[in-house]
Structures are given as structure tokens and as C-alpha cells.
Amino acid sequence: GTFQQIAVPEQGKDELAQMGQTFNELMIQLEQNYRKQEKFVSDASHELKTPITVIDSYARLLERRGMDKPELTEEALTAIRNETKRMKEMIEQMLDLARNNEPASYVFEETDLRILVDDAARMITSAYGRAVHVKGPDQLKLSTDGTHLKQLLIILLDNARKYSEQNIDVEVELLNQYVAVRIRDYGKGIPEKDIPFLFDRFYRVGEDRNRKTGGTGLGLAIANEISIGLGTKLDIESEEGKGTVVTIWLQKKPDSQ
Ligand code: ADP
Predict the structure, then answer these.
(1) How many CB atoms lie within 10 A of CB 87?
(2) Ligand 1 pocket, 160 CB below 6 A?
(3) Pocket lining: 161 vs ligand 1, CB cutoff 6 Å
(4) Residue 96 is inside which H or E element, if any?
(5) Ligand 1 mutation target, pool 205, 216, 227, 244, most atoms within 8 A of CB
(6) Where is each HAMP domain found (predicted)?
(7) Which residue among 162, 185, 201, 246 is best mutated to probe the pocket of ligand 1, counting the most ligand atoms within 8 A of its Cβ?
């Protein structure tokens, strides 16, 4: 059911009216969080059921026909292993979502942004052989949680790698109040109508939704949680067929505001 708001007097500016207002706002927030949680549980169950169904039907097929049709074995085992891998990835990402939602897990300290960016870039290059060019100041100190920021960079670089074929650029730009970190790819891009939903859990665009292997639609949801934890803002700009730019806006001095 929907929460019944307390009636607050229209022109009420006294303490009681304000308390009523605060109470209403808090309850609306709680209710929204509860709905989000409920939706997550039902989406997650659905997403996990799909691989289980595939695994189960291949196991049954092997049971029935495996003996007299040994050529089925390879196909069945490949499918079972792919789906198992996908489930494992999904479960790890769900745990990640829960962990990154915890404000207490963020520790801010003076960090050299350039070292983080170079580390993340190197990881993508050595894991996938994809060139990542980093441009910007050689050294840039700011107060942040390096572990989480690196995780955020890796999620965004990994998407750039998955959805493009060319080199990836990372541009670090020092502005007045902010440091902008732009992750730029020259890949397939994202249709404008999908951009508002990219942070939704399990959301995938067009044909990516049907790809048997690969993503889960949780990467950007995790990126968004981390971004909130870090007190940064994420911007996604994209042009279909041209590529995508994701910008992380880091505050230069989060304490001095
Ligand atoms: P996934 O695990 O599917 O990559 P994400 O939450 O990271 O999940 O991304 C959601 C969807 O957004 C992806 O399925 C893909 O369709 C689209 N997407 C994300 N990043 C990019 C990018 N750099 N270029 C093109 N499409 C992207």
C-alpha cells in the first residue's frame, strides 16, 4: 500500500508543521527505497533463472541422448560452462552492488589521480591487448577513495572496450572547481532514448540485451553507486555509430564547500 501522508497545515511555518513535513519526506524516501529493493529482488531472480533453465535443459539433454550421441557432449558442456560463468559474474556484481552502497566503506585520502588512471588503463591493456591513451597533467593530487575510484574507472574502460573496436582515450582535465576525467571510445554508441535508463540495474541496450554471453547490465548500476559514494557526478554523452564519452566530475576540494 501507499504511505498515508500526515496533513501539514498550508501556511504552517511552526515547528510542528516542519516536523510533519520532514516525516513525510522521510517516509516517501523509505517507501521508494523499499520499492527499489523489491524490484531488484524480482529482477535478480528473473535474471538468474534464465541461465539455470539453460543449464538444466542441457543437462537433461545429456542425460537422455548423451550416450548414443556423443557429439552432443561438447555443445552441451560449452553451453553449461558459459551459463555458469555468466551466473558467477552476476552474483559477484550483485555482491558488489550491495557493498558499494555502504557509505562506511569509503575512505577518503590524498590520492594521485594520474597514478590511478594509468593503473586502470594498464589493466585493460594487459587483459585485452587494447591500447588506452591517457592525456592530461602528469600529477594531480586530490582527496578521494582510490580503491573505489579505480574500480569505477575499470568498469567504464571495460565498457569502452566491450562496445568499441578502436583505441580508447582517457582525458584528465583540471578545471576551476572540478577535475573532469573523460573516458572516450569510438565504438557503436548508445541511442539517445536509452541514455536515461543506463544506471538501472540489468538494463541493456537493443541487441546487447539478447547476447548470450558478455554483460549483465549491472556494470553502470555499480558505477553509479560508486559515483554517489565518491561524491562525484557521472555524465554520459553518446552518438550512435561514432562513440561514447563518459565523464567523471571529481570535486577538487570536497571539504572546502
Ligand atoms: P553490461 O554488463 O551489459 O555492459 P552496463 O550496465 O555496464 O552493463 O551497460 C548497460 C548497457 O549500456 C550495455 O549493455 C550496453 O548496451 C550499453 N553501453 C554501456 N557502455 C557503453 C559504451 N561505452 N558504448 C556503447 N554502449 C554501451
Answers:
(1) 18
(2) yes
(3) no
(4) helix 72-100
(5) 205
(6) 1-35
(7) 162
- Cβ distance 186 to 243 under 8 Å? yes
Q: How many residues does the chain have?
A: 257
Q: Are 180 and 173 in contact (CB under 8 A)?
A: yes
* Whether residue 219 has its Cβ less than 6 Å from ligand 1: yes
Of 55, 54, 80, 58, which Cα lies nearest the Cα of 69? 58
| Residuewise pLDDT in 10s, the chain (257 residues) | 567 777 776 665 688 888 888 999 999 999 988 888 888 899 999 999 989 999 999 999 999 988 888 888 999 999 999 999 999 999 999 999 888 888 888 999 999 999 999 999 999 999 999 999 999 999 999 999 999 999 999 999 999 999 999 999 999 999 999 999 999 999 999 999 999 999 999 999 987 776 655 688 999 999 999 999 999 999 999 999 999 999 999 998 744 43
Spatial separation of the C-alpha atoms in residues 2 and 25, rounded to whole Å: 13
- CA dist 82 and 62 (Å) reads 16
Nearest to 151 by CA among 220, 239, 104: 220
The residue whose CA has the least distance to atom 13 of ligand 1 is: 204
C-beta of 158 in contact with ligand 1 (< 6 A): no
Cβ of 243 below 6 Å from ligand 1? no
CA atoms of 245 and 185, how far apart (whole Å): 7
Cell of 13: 511555518
